[in-house]
């Protein structure tokens, strides 16, 4: 089988990889804990679930910020505010938030000044961005071709699989090593359950990054644990999950909640490229199969990896992606190359009316990815052969 041969090759390559498995346990502290990291959830920022007409979508962070009035409670937010507030409330790095925000314009109303977008709930919102920003193999959301297109609500079965990876005990930490185990399961589920599963470079990037954001942004911080600690109850709160008296988990749409006495990341240790690059590499050491881009070619369980060498004009191969920071290099480069291309499709629709705005978004994404790449030595990738993707029914 082509797939298992590839995995073997990739796993071998990973043996001489820069990050030993103990990486997750010995990450260096960059931040110094400060009491100001406590996030206010009272008064104007009290929890209030969405009222009729308020929009919520696939992102637990944006939903929670909306429920606490850090972004508008109706769920329609200006791009710049989503970026600023993600930084203030969760410590998402400005470079990473800008890249995420730029991607979000796929779901935005490009004609409106200031680029407001809905965080979900209508066709032009984040819930309707499949294969542009929204991707398959999310930590807790279904794939686009499953659940009648509901790719924005938590699927409790997937949440439970994550939740059950740790014992129900306050001393259990849902850290990046746990999320790396979860992504392995989710990837196999997409292959086995989604006939049109497509795992291209953009999808791979978002799948990895959304898994890393769970611990990266939801963990609680303290002087004793400045690198963060994510307890099961805190995870459930951020995901709008409750436990019934018989132990059954349930999700209520839009009830994502910031817990009382929750402390975000240290200001000096934002979750941006400095943190994400080594976390990506360490996750891939546990889950190297995620690097096998491809898709189901003819129904479930027909996963066919793409030829990375043909796709990248020989710059990378399946094996070389696992060496050093090559995976992170490839992800950021592929996003930079593919993003303007897809956006031009959107531009065609709006007839160039907002050329300036769109050019600005492309420029901010390019500078965000450039700053993420600045600290890395990367092979030069200048173009991608997209025709290699045509073999997958889930592409487009
Ligand atoms: C500009 C800011 C942001 C934008 C545009 C954004 C957008 C999105 C989108 C579109 C998704 C769905 C992706 C997919 O299904 O593959 C998503 C998922 C996710 N986001 Fe955000 N997000 C932002 C900020 C945040 C913040 C502040 C957090 C903090 C916790 C966060 C945590 C997550 C997580 C954990 C997921 C995965 C959800 C799951 O499937 O379990 N995001 N985000
Ligand atoms: C966060 O950690 C601090 C210090 O251990 C603790 O007092 C607080 O209750 C924790 N917050 C949550 C939401 O668990
Ligand atoms: C796709 O699968 C169907 C049934 O599983 C089979 O009949 C068909 O020959 C397959 N097509 C290709 C191109 O392999
Ligand atoms: C991938 O494509 C290259 C040419 O672009 C070819 O030399 C190589 O054999 C292919 N690899 C696989 C595994 O098919």
Folded structure, characterized:
The protein is mainly α and 396 residues long. The protein has a single domain, classed as Chloroperoxidase-like (Chloroperoxidase, Orthogonal Bundle). It is built from 12 helices and 7 strands. The protein has helices at residues 2-15, 60-67, 79-90, 94-104, 156-163, 176-193, 201-218, 232-238, 273-286, 308-311, 326-350, 355-373, and strands at residues 76-78, 116-118, 198-199, 241-243, 249-251, 294-296, 303-305. The protein has a 3-stranded antiparallel beta sheet. Strands 1-2 form a two-stranded antiparallel sheet. Strand 4 (241-243) and strand 5 (249-251) form a beta hairpin. Helix 3 (79-90) runs antiparallel to helix 4. It is globular and about 55 Å long. The chain starts with a helix and ends in a 23-residue tail after the last helix. Residues 1-26, 107-113 and 345-355 have low confidence and may be disordered. Bound molecules: protoporphyrin IX containing FE and 2-acetamido-2-deoxy-beta-D-glucopyranose (NAG) (3 copies). One 2-acetamido-2-deoxy-beta-D-glucopyranose (NAG) binds next to loops. Residues 58-62, 82-83, 86, 90, 92, 97, 100-101, 104, 126, 133-135, 138-141, 206, 210, 213-214, 217-218 line the site of protoporphyrin IX containing FE.
């Amino acid at each position: 089988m082509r797939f298992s041969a590839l995995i073997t090759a990739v796993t071998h390559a990973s043996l001489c990889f820069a990050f030993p498995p103990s990486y997750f346990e010995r990450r260096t502290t960059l931040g110094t804990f400060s009491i100001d990291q406590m996030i206010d959830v009272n008064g104007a920022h009290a929890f209030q679930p969405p009222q009729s007409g308020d929009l919520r979508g696939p992102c637990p962070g944006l939903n929670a910020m909306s429920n606490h009035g850090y972004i508008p409670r109706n769920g329609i937010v200006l791009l710049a505010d989503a970026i600023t507030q993600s930084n203030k409330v969760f410590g998402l790095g400005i470079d990473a938030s800008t890249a995420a925000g730029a991607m979000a314009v796929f779901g935005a109303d490009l004609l409106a000044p200031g680029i407001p977008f809905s965080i979900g709930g209508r066709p032009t919102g984040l819930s309707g961005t499949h294969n542009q920003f929204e991707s398959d193999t999310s930590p807790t959301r279904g794939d686009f071709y499953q659940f009648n297109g509901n790719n924005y609500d938590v699927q409790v079965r997937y949440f439970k699989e994550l939740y059950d990876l740790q014992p129900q005990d306050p001393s259990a930490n849902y850290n990046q090593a746990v999320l790396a185990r979860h992504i392995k399961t989710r990837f196999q589920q997409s292959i086995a359950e989604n006939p049109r599963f497509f795992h291209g470079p953009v999808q791979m990037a978002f799948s990895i990054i959304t898994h890393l954001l769970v611990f990266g942004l939801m963990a609680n911080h303290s002087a004793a644990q400045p690198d963060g600690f994510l307890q099961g109850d805190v995870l459930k709160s951020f995901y709008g999950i409750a436990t019934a008296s018989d132990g059954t988990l349930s999700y209520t749409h839009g009830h994502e909640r910031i817990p009382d006495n929750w402390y975000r990341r240290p200001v000096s240790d934002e979750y941006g490229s400095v943190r994400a690059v080594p976390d990506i590499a360490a996750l891939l050491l546990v889950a190297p199969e995620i690097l096998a881009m491809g898709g189901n070619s003819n129904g479930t369980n027909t996963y066919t990896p793409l030829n990375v060498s043909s796709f990248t004009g020989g710059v990378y191969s399946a094996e070389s992606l696992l060496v050093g920071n090559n995976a992170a290099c490839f992800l950021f480069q592929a996003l930079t190359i593919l993003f303007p291309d897809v956006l031009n499709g959107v531009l065609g629709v709006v007839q160039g009316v907002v050329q300036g705005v769109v050019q600005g978004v492309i420029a901010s994404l390019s500078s965000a990815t450039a700053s993420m790449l600045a600290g890395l030595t990367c092979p030069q990738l200048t173009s991608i052969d997209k025709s290699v993707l045509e073999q997958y029914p889930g592409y487009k």
